[in-house]
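As a point of orientation, let us examine one representative protein, giving the amino acid sequence and backbone structure tokens.
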Amino acid sequence: MLRFFGASVIPAICTAIIAYFGYYAVSGTRGYRAYANVNSELAIQQQKLASVRGERMRLEHRIGLLESGHVDRDMVEEVEREQLLGSTPGQIAVPRERH
């Protein structure tokens, strides 16, 4: 009886334990598949971050052009046009002669 237990039950238990941990190493919440999903999500978020940083740099540059002391006239006219005319992207404003 003891021989049967040692010959079949113990290897079966060890196989079950190895299968359990092997499954979770591949498909578990912190397994290989989850790692691959996290890496792909990280790449997407890094692209979004690069886009947001680029937009931030563009806006900081525009703000710098409007700071007192060295105001860029073209930038002031652009902001004025946007606010006064309610312009949309691609719209062209034709200046009129002053009366």
